[in-house]
Amino acid sequence: MSHEAVRELSGLYVLEALTPAELAEFQAHLEVCDVCRAEVAALRPVAVGLACAVPQVEPPATLRERVIRSATGRPVEARHSTASVVRKPTTRMAPWLLAAASLLAAVALGGYSLQLRARVTDLETRLQQAITQASLAERQIADARRTALDAQSQLAVLAAPDLVRIDLAGQTNAPAASARAFWSRSRGMVFTASNLPSLPAGRVYQLWVLTATGPPVSVGLLEPDQTGGLTAVFQTPPDIPPPTQVAVSDEPAGGVPSPTGMIWVAGTPAA
Amino acid sequence: MCMWVLWAVIGRVGAGEAGRARAEDARVDQEVVRRMAGRDGDALAELYDRHARALYSFALHIVGEKAEAEDVVQEVFSQAWAQAPRYEARRGAVAAWLLTMTRSRAIDRLRARRARPDSEGAGEGQLRDLIDPSEPQDLGLLIREQVNRLRSALEGLPALQRVVVQMAYFEGLTQSEIAERLGEPLGTVKTRVRLALLKLREALAEPAG
C-alpha cells in the first residue's frame, strides 16, 4: 500500500477502529514514516477530547467501595476529593443582646430604606434585562438541543443492527434528483435527498413506505432546502410490514392519508 | 492495543498557566500509579476519586446502561491495579491509558450485545447528546475550553462526517461495517473520518480567547 493509501487510515487508527490486519499494516508503516507519525500524534488529542466531551454523569456512590474492594480486596477509607462535612459552630445569642441588636437594626433601617428603594428600582430594571437575555439563551439552547436530538436519532438509526438501505432514483419528472433511506424497524428512518425540484405554492413532498400487504404508509412531510436537499429522521410504526418500496410524492399542503400526487423519487430495498 | 502517546502533544496544546496545571495533574497521576504499583490501596482510591466520573460518563455514553457502565468502571480500575507495576510513565498520560481501557471494555460489551440476535435494542434510549450543558470533565489532558470548542466543532461537521466518527468511536464499528451500513465505498469512510478528525483537531488547536 502506498503512503497516501496508508495515511488515509490515520483517522480510524486514532479512533481505534482498524481491524487487526489493518492495524498491523498501519503500525508497520508508522515505524518508517515520520509524516504519518506526526499526523497521528496531532490527531490523538481529538480522541481524548471526544471521550471528555460526552455528557458528564456522576457514578453512584456505592460504586467506589465496590471498585476498590474488588481490585484490592481491602476495605475502603473515606473519599479523598470530597470535602468533609463542615460543622458550623453553633452560637446562641443572649436574649438581651438580641433585643439590643433588633433595636439598633430598626434605627438603622429607617435611613437605609431610602437607599434601598433606589437600589430595588435599579435591580428590577436589571432583572428585567436578565430575564430577557435568559429567555433568548433558553431559545438558543432549545435550538441546539433539537439539532443534537436529530443528530443522535440519526446515529441511532444508522447504527441499528437491523438497518435496511433503500436507494431512490429520480423519476422522469426529476431525473437529477436522488435520495437514500435508511430504515430500522426498531429505530425509525433517516431520509436524505438531493436535487428535489421546488414545488409550486400549496404543494409539499410526502414520504411513503409501500408494503406487500397493506396500503402505503405515510412516513412524513419533507422540507427540502433551497438546493432541494435535506436529511431528516422519522419515526416509523413498529408494526409496519417490511417495505417493498419507498417513494416521495407531491401532495396538498399538510399532507394526505394516502398518496394522490406524482411520484418524484422511488426505490426498492437493497438485496 | 495501541496506546495513546499524548505527552508531547498535550504539552504543546495547553500553553501557559493552564499548561502548567495540566503538567501538574499528569505528574500527580503518575505518582498515584507509582504508589499503586507498591500495592497502596489508598492510591487506587485516589485514582478513583480523580477519574471515576469521567470514565463512568464515557462508559455510559457507549453502553447506554448504568449497570453495565458500572461493571466497565470496575473492570478498568481492577485492570489498572493489576497493571500498575508494569505501567511505564513514558507510555503516556495515565488518564489517556484509563480512557483507552474504558473504551475497549465498553465496546467489547456493545459487540457482544450486537452478536446476541434477540437482544437487539437492549439498553437503547440512552441520550447520546454531545451538546451538553454540563461542564466537561477535566482530566488534566485538555482544558475545558478546548473540549467545549471540540463540541461545537463536532456539531458543525457535515452530518455524514459526524456520523462516521461517532459510529467508529462510540459504536465500535469497523470501517467495513460502517461502509456496509451507509452504502458507501471503504475509501469514502476512511476519508470522511480523517477529514473530520483534522477539522476537530483545528478546533482544539485554536488559541484560547
Describe this structure in words.
The complex is a heterodimer of chains A (271) and B (209). Chain A is α+β, with helices and mostly antiparallel strands. Chain A has 3 domains: 3-52, no CATH class; 100-159; 164-267. Chain A is built from 6 helices and 8 strands. Chain A has an 8-stranded antiparallel β-sheet, with helices on one face. The longest helix of chain A has 64 residues, at 95-158. In chain A, 28% of the residues are buried. The model of chain A is unreliable at 81-91 (pLDDT under 50). Chain B has 2 domains: 1-133, Rna Polymerase Sigma Factor, Chain: A (Orthogonal Bundle); 143-209, Orthogonal Bundle (Arc Repressor Mutant, subunit A), CATH 1.10.10. In chain B, 69% of the residues lie in helices and 0% in strands. Chain B is built from 9 helices and no strands. Chain B has helices at 7-13, 16-37, 41-63, 66-83, 94-115, 144-156, 159-169, 175-182, 186-205. In chain B, helix 2 (16-37) crosses helix 3 and helix 3 runs antiparallel to helix 4. Chain B is globular and about 50 Å long. Residues 1-14 and 119-138 of chain B have low confidence and may be disordered. At the A-B interface, helix 2, helix 3, helix 4, helix 5 and helix 6 of A face helix 1, helix 3, helix 4, helix 5 and helix 6 of B.
State the end-to-end distance of chain A: 32 Å
Shape of chain B: globular
Determine the fraction of residues in helical runs of chain A and give it as a percent range: 40-55%
CATH topology of the largest domain in chain B: Rna Polymerase Sigma Factor, Chain: A
What does the main sheet of chain A amount to? 8 strands, antiparallel
Secondary-structure topology with pairs:
The complex is a heterodimer of chains A (271) and B (209).
Chain A (H helix, E strand, L loop, with lengths): L2 H5 L2 H5 L5 H13 L1 H19 L9 H11 L22 H64 L5 E7 L7 E7 L3 E7 L8 E9 L5 E6 L7 E5 L8 E10 L10 E5 L4
Antiparallel strand pairs in A: 1-2, 1-8, 2-3, 3-6, 4-5, 4-7, 7-8
Chain B lengths: L6 H7 L2 H22 L3 H23 L2 H18 L10 H22 L28 H13 L2 H11 L5 H8 L3 H20 L4
